[in-house]
Amino acid sequence: MKDLQSLSEQILNKTKAKGQSKLEDAEKISVAKIEESRLTLVEQQKARKAAVLKKVANDFDREQQTLKNKERNAVLKEKQVILKSVFQQALEKMTLWDETHFAQFLNGVLAQAGDSKAYSIVPGAKSIAHFKGKELQQLLVKYPAVKISEESIPNKAGFILQEGGVDYNYCFDDLIEDVKNDFAAELATLAFQDEK
Predict the structure, then answer these.
(1) In a 10 Å sphere around its CB, with 0-12 CB exposed, 13-18 middle and 19+ buried, how is residue 131 labelled?
(2) Which is nearest to 139 in space by CA: 162, 116, 156, 115?
(3) Using CA atoms, how far apart are residues 153 and 171, in angstroms rounded to an integer?
(4) Which of 14, 48, 86, 171 would bridge 158 by S-S if both were Cys, CB 3.0 to 4.6 A apart?
C-alpha cells in the first residue's frame, strides 16, 4: 500500500509540476502579451502626440504665413496709396503753375516741335487763363505758325498740340499717367528703400 501511496504521490507531484509548468508558461505568455500591448499603446500614444504636434506646427506655420501675407498686402496697399498721392500732388502742382512756369513748359514743347510747321494749340479749360496772359502772348510771338484754338478741353489742365491731323497730348493728367507707368517702380524703390 505504501507503494501505491508513493506512486500516487509521484503521479500527483508530476501532475502538479506539469500544471505548475503550464501555469508558469501561460503567465509568461500573458506577461509577454501584456508587455506587447503596453508597448503598442505607448507607440500609438507617441504617434498620436507626434500627429497632434505636427498639426499644431502646420497650423501655426499656415497662420504665420497668412499674417505675413496680410502684412505684406497692407504694406503694398499703403505704398500704392502713397505713390498715388505723390502723382496726384504732382498733377495738382502742375495744374496750379503760375504763368511763368506754364510758359516755360510750352516753350520747351514748341522748341522740340520746331517752328517750320503750322501748329494749333487746344488749351485745357483749367489752363485757358495762361493763354490770355502777357508771358504766353510774348512767347507765341517767337512761334508765328502756332495758333490758339477757340475751343478748350473740358476739365483738363495743359493742352493738345495739333499738327496735320495728329494730336500731341500735353494734358497734365495724361502726362502724369504716362510717367506713372514708366517711373512708379523706380519711385517706389527710392521712396521705400529704407524698409529693406
Answers:
(1) buried
(2) 115
(3) 9
(4) 171
